[in-house]
Amino acid sequence: MQASILDLEYVLGHYNYWMFVILMMTGLYITVSRGNLIKKIVGLNIFQTAVFMLYISMGKIIGGTAPILVDDPDAVYSNPLPHVLILTAIVVGIATTALALALVVRIRETYGTVEEDDILAMEHEMEFGAGVPHGGDRG
């Protein structure tokens, strides 16, 4: 009985890491399994958010304070570096998402669809040409 209580406490005590795993696997699944380019971008954003959550979780220390020097030599500080890095990563992520959405808009204008399979079929048809004789008169 004692072991199961400790296991439950361990699992509940690390809920942020469980959420990280769930979000990361959800984002990966959406990115890999979907053919819609918008859904792929959403999956990548979920995956990215999971990584942010992991880094922020690792930077927090229970009982830690902001790294401001005080006279107490026994003070415990939380590491601010992961939080600073995540702020930069959030800005880069927003810019990357904006660029990806702009590319999807251009793809939609060009091909009339945002489905990956349809776009690949159109590309294949354009490359090999339907009904165009191969190796004939090249003029």
Any overview of this molecule?
- The chain has 139 residues and is an all-alpha fold.
- It has one domain (8-128): Helix Hairpins (Orthogonal Bundle), CATH 1.10.287.3510.
- The protein has helices at residues 2-13, 15-33, 37-59, 81-111, 116-128.
- Helix 2 (15-33) packs antiparallel against helix 3.
- The protein is elongated and about 75 Å long.
CATH topology assignment:
Helix Hairpins
- Shape label: elongated
Instruction: Please report the distance between the alpha carbons of the first and last residues.
Output: 85 Å
Identify the CATH class: Mainly Alpha
Averaging pLDDT over every residue, what do you get? 85
Major beta-sheet overview: none
Q: Cα-atom Rg, whole angstroms?
A: 25 Å
| Tally of individual domains | 1
CATH architecture verdict: Orthogonal Bundle
Class inferred from helices and paired strands: mainly alpha
Number of helices: 5
Number of strands: 0
What proportion strand?
under 5%
Poorly predicted regions are: none
> How helical, in percent, are the residues?
over 70%
Summarize the helix and strand pattern as letters: HHHHH
In brief, what are we looking at here?
This protein has helices at 2-13, 15-33, 37-59, 81-111, 116-128.
